[in-house]
Structures are given as C-alpha cells and as structure tokens.
Amino acid sequence: MIDIKLLLNDLFNVSASDIEKAAAYQKRYDGRLENILVNMGCLTEDDLPPLYHNLLGYPLFETESFPNWKPDDSIKFSEHEILKSHHCLLLSATDTEWSIACKDPLDPSLSQFLSKKSVEIKVYIASDAQLQSFFYEIQSQTEANFNDDELTGTEEARLRELASEAPIVNLLNALITKALARGASDMHLEPHGGRFRVRYRIDGVLHQVDSLAAKMQLPLTTRLKILSGMDIAEKRRPQDGKIEMRIANQDLDIRVSALPLNAGESIVLRFLRKDSIKYDMSVLGLSNDTQALINQDLKKTTGVILLTGPTGSGKTTTLYTFLNELNTDNVKIITLEDPVEYQLDGVSQVQINADIGFDFAAGLRSIVRQDPDIIMVGEIRDKETAQIALQSALTGHLVFSTVHTNDAASAYTRLLDLGVEEFLLNAALVSVVAQRLARRLCGHCAKPAENAEELIAKYPLKEIASMAGLDALNIMQAQGCEHCNNTGFKGRIAINEYLRCDDGIKVIPKDDQFIAKAKAYNHSQNRRDLLEDGFYKVVTGVTTIDEVLRVAG
C-alpha cells in the first residue's frame, strides 16, 4: 500500500510538522490519521475521496452514472439501513457481485459486514453530499403528491416533516460546508434535465458540483424556505430570505432567493462571510499608477467619487476599502445601503427600506443632517438621489457611490439621462472608476505561457508594457493543482479604468460625442481603459488573456 503520509504531502501539501502532530495524537489516543487531520483543519471532508482513491485504487463515484437509481428490491430494507449506517450505498446487486459507494472504505465494521456476503464487492469512493441524495431514496420509497398551486394544511405539515428529516438536513449541511470549503460566493440549486442541479460560483465562474434526484427538489427547497423565513406554501412568486449561522467559528449570513420556474423553483444562496473579507488596498490588486491617483482623490474633503460596473464586479467591496482607508476617529462616515452586506467597525451604516418609503433619496436627505464628513450611497438610481448626492459634495462632504455603466465616461451620460444638470456634474465629480473582476492565476501552479509569442503578435501587449514602463513581459498560463481545485485560478483581481474629472474633461461638451472624446483625452494622459488595464495584468503575470477578454473584451 502507498504510504499515506507521502500522499498527504503530495496531494494536499500537508506539512511534515502537521503530519507528525497528527501521528503523535494517533499514537496516544488512537484513531485514523486522515480523520485527525480533518479535525485539525489540515484537510477537509472533500479531500478524503481523492485520498482514498489514490491510496486504495478504488474509482471515484460519479452520480451521473446512476441517473435512475432505485433501492434494489431484492435486498432487504434492513441491509440497506445497515449499509447506510456505515455511510455506504448499495448501487447494484446480483447473485455474484455487489457494487457499493462508500465514504470510508477503511471502516472495519463495514468490512466485517461485507465479508459475510458470498459475493464479489466492487467499491466506489463517494463524498457525504453524494450519498445523502441517494439515502433519501431509501427512506422515501413513496413520495407524497402535493398540489402545484396550493398546499392543504395536511400537505404543508407533511412537507415540513420531509424537510426536517435527517437525509435532507445532512445533505443541505454537506452542500453548504463544501461550498464554503471551496470558497464559493454563491450556491445555485435548480431543476435541469429532469434532475436537481447544484452549482457553485467560485471566483465569478459557475461550476457544477452535483446532480441530485428530481425528488430532492421539493424537500430541499422547503428546508431552505423554512430556515430563511419564507412561505413554504408559496411557489408562484419570487421570495427572498436570510439565514444567519455559525460554521467553523465563522459568522455567516446567507441571502436566499427563490424564483419560480416552469419546472419548479430556482434557489440561489449568497454567502456573506463576515470575517473573510479584508478591506485593504493591496488586496484589490489595483495597478500602482491607478492606486496612486485614487490615493490622491481620497485625500480630498469634498466631491463625488463614483464606481461603475455591472452587478458582481466588486464595486461595494472597493468602496468599503476606500472607506476603511479613511475611517479614523476624526471623521464621521455614514453609509446608505440596500442591503447592508458587511458591518464596518466605526462606520454608521443605514439600511434602505423601500416598503415604508425610506429609499436612497429619503435616506440621503436624513443623513446629511447628521453632520457626516463622508457619505456612501450604495447606488444612484434616480434624479433626486443623484442631485442630493452631488449637492452634498458641494456643501462640504466627500461622497462615494455607484452607477451601472459599462465604462467610466458613460457615468456622465447616465447621470445626464437621469436629469442631472451638466454644471452640477462639472462642479462635483472628482473621479470615476470603472471596474471588472478577473480571476487571478494560482500562485502554486501557473507557468510561462507556451503561446506567448502568438499572444504578443495578436494583442498590443508590448505597447501596454512600454506605456507602463515595464522592461519585460511575464505572460503566464493556467495549469491547475490541488490548491485551486484544478482550475488554474485562485481568487480575483480588479481591472480598472480611471477617469479624473479635471479641467480637460469639464471643457468637453456633454453631447453624443462626449464618450469618445473623454476616452481620447484619458488616453492622452497615459491612462488605460478596462481592456488595456487587463492586458497590463497579463504582462505582469497576474491573469490571462482569456480572462481579460471574458470580463472586459
């Protein structure tokens, strides 16, 4: 058998010192080395299947290979239950062979039970999340029929009971734990192809991680609705809810959204980890020249600084980082948000409540009377909010906000479309920063790009390097390793376009030619647009051409 200590180091980069600590604990208290390392936090539950696969040579279990699985009627229900107690699933059975999927192939009591069977055993290695959906099939041989339009009191009680049973609770917990271990920002549960698909959004990209039986949809959806305070009987309109929980000593808020579809409901969970976000300028990945310009703007005491970009481009995180830089005992900072996602120490954060008429405009009118030095408005959506924000800047406040536009110059036209006067824009705006997020290359496995010369010939990489004063081009490509879940990327980095609203911009007429003229002026000031800043991140070895074109092309 392969030495498990060598595997732990090679596959998961577990340090020799941690292995020795685990071995010392094992010698004193008994137990399995890999389980001790899981308890120490050196491994996760998701690491165990590939570990056993490499250690024992058993194949990994693929749920897609058993799309229509049902418990074998020729096997006693009690034997299914015995196997289940060992986290083991009987996939198929004949007179001569059983195929099983198990979480722990080294479980001695499982081996003892199987040794009494006069059949050949074919073993697959499975994760707990994979097994739980199949266990539900065993427990629920008959499924209640629920009215698609309206639940009776009896049906609702039965649905609550189904959603509270151990297989559903364990499955949901396993899916959330796996999502957090992989660094997912969102989890999507949706009907697809006659099954219930599970996908994680990791570094902005969706990855399918499981495909559950279709009958799992209703109890899982109901479980999430119960936890998040939604109406489980309502399946015809969208609903939103919130779950607060603590996992691995970490406070976690989960925003839950339910959307009715033709085939059921799509459920999306957004994970807000309060302790995992670092509001540090160095973490944003701003280019040195862009950061220097922004630092100059942050020293101002009046004016408006805008962040632009689509949903999910990191605007709020960037604004929080700016506020964190300015957050001292000498200034009062008030934010107006919808919703308040993360709590900033020392900052007064206000939650919008449109249901009672407390929108951005009403909130902004109120907070200017609180004598703030710095104001953050989550988003400028209408003329009234825009005018109050800009006028607040003219009366001695530094204001931060966001608008949804494709680039920096378009922020002007967006505000003009809302009805803001041109003179007010020229007087109040300090700068506009457009932003996208690209995946950052994994620092453990990235390697020099094999097609670097081809990329240099196709894209203006040399020009970008020369423009930034770089002597060499460091073009890398993704490879994939255990540190990045074999994606080649780990984390994300900001790609920005910076537009300073100086005299050169103010004198340009704000007509249908403004965007083109503003871009030309900005380029004459040796400032990059979004695509060029992405190329800058390519030649400095931070990301790839494909990533830049995906988010900014």
TrEMBL record:
<dbReference type="InterPro" id="IPR001482">
    <property type="entry name" value="T2SS/T4SS_dom"/>
</dbReference>
<protein>
    <submittedName>
        <fullName>General secretion pathway protein E</fullName>
    </submittedName>
</protein>
<dbReference type="InterPro" id="IPR027417">
    <property type="entry name" value="P-loop_NTPase"/>
</dbReference>
<keyword id="KW-0547">Nucleotide-binding</keyword>
<dbReference type="GO" id="GO:0005524">
    <property type="term" value="F:ATP binding"/>
</dbReference>
<keyword id="KW-0067">ATP-binding</keyword>
<dbReference type="GO" id="GO:0005886">
    <property type="term" value="C:plasma membrane"/>
</dbReference>
<dbReference type="InterPro" id="IPR037257">
    <property type="entry name" value="T2SS_E_N_sf"/>
</dbReference>
<feature type="domain" description="Bacterial type II secretion system protein E">
    <location>
        <begin position="368"/>
        <end position="382"/>
    </location>
</feature>
<comment type="similarity">
    <text>Belongs to the GSP E family.</text>
</comment>
<dbReference type="Pfam" id="PF05157">
    <property type="entry name" value="MshEN"/>
</dbReference>
<dbReference type="GO" id="GO:0016887">
    <property type="term" value="F:ATP hydrolysis activity"/>
</dbReference>
<dbReference type="InterPro" id="IPR007831">
    <property type="entry name" value="T2SS_GspE_N"/>
</dbReference>
<dbReference type="InterPro" id="IPR003593">
    <property type="entry name" value="AAA+_ATPase"/>
</dbReference>
<dbReference type="Pfam" id="PF00437">
    <property type="entry name" value="T2SSE"/>
</dbReference>
